[in-house]
Amino acid sequence: MVEYLSAGTSSRVILKDTATWDPWLANIESIAVQFDVWELCDPSQEEEPEPLKAPGKVISIAEAQKEYKDKWFESLKMLQSEWSIDNTIYTQQKKGLNVVVIAIRNSVHPNYQPFIIDYKTLYALLRNLR
After folding, report:
1. Using 50, 70 and 90 to split pLDDT, how confident is the model at 1?
2. Is the pTM of this model over 0.85?
3. What are phi and psi of 15, to 5 degrees?
4. Bridge partners for 108 per DSSP
5. Mean pLDDT across the stretch 106-130?
6. 105 within 8 A of 9, measured Cβ to Cβ
7. Nearest residue to 101 (alpha-carbon basis) of 130, 80, 123
8. Cα-flanking dihedrals φ and ψ of residue 82, to 5°?
9. pLDDT value at position 20?
10. Phi, psi of 108 (to 5 degrees)
11. How far apart are CA 95 and CA 46, in angstroms?
């Protein structure tokens, strides 16, 4: 919640009608961009983007020895390092998506709250509000 409050929301816009859509969406976009998740929820896209996916598992020692032979240890270390970086990015983006959800739920007029309850993705939620 603290992240949301510090995510560029000083001039909070409440979505209450079509006249407030553009400034409201610009506010939501600025939050999503800060967390590098706008491409996952941008409602102007015609097709729903692929959902955020956790990085796959790193290969086992036995698989590394078989696949990389003499350089298996170095290769495995490199793969583990890459996985760690990918997992950090994934974790930050997952947190970012949650921050955007909170920002949306806190900035939609109470009359429209029923329209944002049952959506599986931010993209679908924003497309419905549009």
Report:
1. very low
2. no
3. -80, 110
4. 15
5. 91
6. no
7. 123
8. -60, -40
9. 96
10. -100, 130
11. 25
Round to whole Å and give the CA distance between 97 and 49.
14
Contact 125, 116 (CB under 8 A): yes
99: its two tokens: 């921050």
The pLDDT, as a whole number, for residue 10 is: 44
Average pLDDT over residues 78-93: 98
Closest by alpha carbon to 28, among 14, 49, 46, 48? 14
How much is the pLDDT for 11?
54
* Site of tokens 């959800």: 101
CA distance 56 to 80: 11
Amino acid at 112: Y
Q: Please name the amino acid found at residue 74.
A: E
Distance between CA atoms of 55 and 70, rounded to whole angstroms? 26
Contact between 115 and 128 under an 8 Å Cβ cutoff? The reply is yes
Query: What token pair was written down for 120?
Result: 């599986």
Spatial contact of 15 and 126, defined as CB atoms under 8 Å apart: no
